[in-house]
Amino acid sequence: MTETITSEFDAAAMEVFGALLVNSYSGAATTAMVALGHRTGLFEAATAGPATSSELAARAGLSERHVREWLGAVTTAGILDYEPADATYRLRPEHAALLIGETALNQALIAGGLVQMSRYVDLVEGCFRAGGGIPYDVYRPEFTEVMDTMGRWRYDALLVDGYLTLVPGLVDCLRIGTAVADLGCGTGHCVNVMARRFPASEFVGYDLAGDAIERARAEAAEWGLTNTRFEVLDVRDLPSAPGFGVITAFDSIHDQVDPAGVLAAAHDALEPGGAFVMVDVRASSNLEDNVGNPMAPIIYAISVLHCLEVSLAHDGAGLGTAWGEQLACTMLRAAGFAHLEVHEIEGDPFNLLYAARRPDLPA
To answer: Which of 4, 52, 217, 262 shows its CA 20 to 30 Å from the CA of 308?
Structure first.
């Protein structure tokens, strides 16, 4: 006879989980308020010193009634402090450091990205029911702006003096001069930053999005760069000749339709001994390793709302944002790369840098 094992309902465990849900919902609501504070300039206005709702609204040129309600949300969320005696609000400098400024520390940019992604919940629900995904074009042009905003200041601060310095000999190679390709370049800011810093090298950026490519070209023209070009291209069709000394990919491999094909194309497009530098999300390929990582729910949610969808829309591999270090290394080796190294990035706890090379001689 089979014995049925039942467990008693644990009311205390239910209360603990209920509190967790409330914290999650509160965090989601606060995310929208942080995005509003960033977009309206309220955080910058608050750095001028303690202010009433009327004074803060006047500083930012906004409706006082809306500002007052927003202040209620961000004060109860612990972002601003409130002094009842004179009805003033204060933004601590330690909080301001993570909410304002054109620096890699500004985490208000993440809030804006998450709010934008939430617009696609209805479409994603349809994918859950019918399968498939959402084509990349559906996310544009808003997604182009979100990705540019979220990455621009981080790359300004860390790209050359943080990321590239982790790869032995790479900076010297770029300084002497080589041909460089960037895969999935978006608005081309990384390409332009490198091109301005290393005028002896020649750079090309490839991306599917025509609007992003136009912005890349406009920035290059504004900066007076003569060593860059940008092309609309599916990077699976990366030309293998005449060959590149360096190929980079910044947060662009995991959402490809055919990531293995892209990595193989990158390998073949490099000169013998050429370097492939990939920056991608810091995560494990094993779900159990990601439990307890405070960024993991965000990583998986972004995957569900975007990265997974744009790959599955074309019957792609659907790696997802949390494809992880183990799978990334396996795929890089399968593509033929050698001398693979994985580096943590000082100042960027959200990503890892993968450095690999095409072997000097055929395998």
So the answer is: 217
What topology does CATH give the domain 116-357? Rossmann fold (3.40.50)
Could you report the per-residue pLDDT of 261-296, keeping only the tens digit for each?
999 999 999 999 999 999 999 999 999 999 999 999
Cβ proximity of 308 and 318 under 8 Å? yes
User: What digits encode the pLDDT tens for the residues 144-166?
Assistant: 888 888 888 889 989 999 999 99
Specify the 3-state DSSP secondary structure of 206: strand
**In terms of Cα–Cα distance, which of 209, 19, 215, 39 is closest to 115?**
39
Q: In the CATH hierarchy, which fold is given to the domain comprising 11-100?
A: Arc Repressor Mutant, subunit A (1.10.10)
Q: Where in the chain is the domain with CATH 3.40.50.150?
A: 116-357
Helices (H), the chain: 11-40, 42-46, 53-60, 64-76, 93-96, 108-117, 121-130, 136-139, 142-158, 170-176, 189-197, 210-222, 259-269, 287-290, 296-302, 308-312, 324-334
Considering the chain, tell me which residue range(s) the CATH 1.10.10.10 domain(s) occupy: 11-100
- Average pLDDT, integer, range 304-331: 97
What pLDDT score was predicted for residue 206?
A: 97
Question: What is the rounded CA–CA span in Å between residue 53 and residue 261?
Answer: 55
